[in-house]
Amino acid sequence: MSVAETLAAAKPRSGRAISFLFFAIAIALIVATPFLPNYYVRVINSLLIYILLGIGLNIVIGYAGLLDLGFVAFYAVGAYSYALLASPQLDLHWPFLLILLVAACLGAVTGILLGIPVLRLRGDYLAIVTLGFGEIIRIIINNLDWLTGGPKGIARLDKASILGIQVARPIDFFWLLLITVLVVGTLVWRLERSILGKAWAAIREDQDAARGIGINTTNAKLAAFATSATIGSIAGAIFAASQRFVSPESFTLQESVLIVLMIVVGGIGNILGIVAGATILMLLPEVLREFAEWRILFLGLLMIFLIIVRPAGIVPRSFGPDKLIRRLFGK
After folding, report:
1. Tens digits of per-residue pLDDT, 145-161?
2. What is the spatial distance between Cα 78 and Cα 69, in angstroms, rounded to a whole number?
3. What is the 3-state composition of the chain as percent helix, strand, coil, each rounded to the nearest 5?
4. Is residue 236 within 8 Å of residue 154, measured between CB atoms?
5. pTM listed for this prediction
6. Could you list the residue ranges that cross the membrane (predicted)?
7. Spans of all domains in the chain
């Protein structure tokens, strides 16, 4: 056997070993989390929330190729849905699951309302309009004192409970978020492989060509915005329930940019890449907390390095969940 044949035969084995290694690390982290102090559990909960947000935004940016810089607006819609329906603010105390459903529906409607005026926009123009939409939502929340509490926010939110089981401790939200991320991630992955997912891919590559072969680009884009916004609102509702306090400061433009960076650094259009990008951008600042004056610089240099070395992201689109499953359990 030649050297080239030997290297070609060794490559799948090494790739499978790396896949097993990362899979083992993920399982070990899940098993170890219940035994960690509450502070670290809260950090992991924040990571899971951002993974959920990244999965939602990836539908618009990664699958449909539409640059959305106002995604934080849907995050805010979900958070304030819980805050208004489970607090003394309006003297309403609805069940958590019902509020989650309401937040998802409101998110979908808001996503469609954003999608309708921007159907004909592309590229930078679309980014500017969505950025403005996110800022409009934040300003409205900040100024409606009688409803949202204004800059002071809304405090004393009800503790969440599911089927009579109270979800209040950080570890409780860890299991809730983990299950939510797994379920949403699986559904979105299957959606990518569906007919609608193929339509999004066609729009991403060439909208005019997609329209020319009979794809209803209007409905496909609206579906992308609605699905993405639904996931963002669900993440916002769980965030509000875990913090039991919301304010406009949590929904700034920087949050939208951070979520976009997670997708770009991790790998556009790849759920595994979102996990990798979120892990780096969320956990690295915690690791560098002792170097508070320099950690933003380190983070910026790391992102520049990754973009130069891995322009397609840490986990490129070609290595999706299906390929990981084949490497772990297939031939």
Report:
1. 999 999 999 999 999 99
2. 17
3. 75, 5, 20
4. no
5. 0.91
6. 20-40, 47-76, 96-116, 123-141, 173-191, 222-245, 257-284, 296-314
7. 33-251
